[in-house]
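The data are quoted verbatim here:
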Amino acid sequence: MRTANAQAFELEEMLESRPERELGAEPRFEVVEGGGLDAHVRAGVSSEFLARVKMVVAAAVMLFILGTFRVALTSATVAQLSSNVEVREQIEDFETTNNNLRVERSLMSSATRIDRIATQNYGMVPAASFDVIVIDNGEEAEAEAEVESEAEVAPEAEAPAEDAIGDEAVEDAESTPVVDAGLLAAGL
C-alpha cells in the first residue's frame, strides 16, 4: 500500500520528465477566461434582447394609446350624432306645435267668432254706425277720412247709399288694420 506522499512524488517525477512543461514553454491549447458551457447562463440577458423587448413594449403601448383615442373619438361622434337627432326631433315638435298654434290663433281671432261671442255671451248688438280709426298714416287713411266725411254730409234721403259705403268700409276694414269703436269701448 502506498501512502499519499508516495503518489505525490510519482506525479512530480512524471512532470519533471516531460520537457514541454518547462517554464517559458508555450502550451498547446489556448486558455480563454470565463468561458465554458454555462458562460451564457452566467452572462445574463443580452443588451440586444433588452432593446428588442423595449421596442415591442413601446409598440404595444402606442397601439393601446391609439386604440383608446379611436374609441374615445368614436364615442364622442356617436354622442354628438344622437344629440343632433334629439335636437331635430325637438325642432319638428316645435314646428308642429307652432303650426297648430297658428291655426288656433286664426280660428280664435276670426271676426265672426268675436261678433258671435259679443252678441251671445255679453248681450252686445252690432253697431248701426261705427267710427273707423286707422293707425296707418298713408294714403289709405286719407281716402277713408274722405269717405267718412262724405257719409256725414249726405242727406237722410240717401240712407241706402250710406249702407253701401258702410259695407265697403267693412270690406276695407278686413284688409286694413281697423279698430271698431264699439269693440274698443267694450274692451274686446
Summary: Helices lie at 4-17, 39-43, 47-108, 111-120, 139-153, 159-175, 181-186. Residues 128-186 form one domain. The two ends are 149 Å apart (CA to CA).
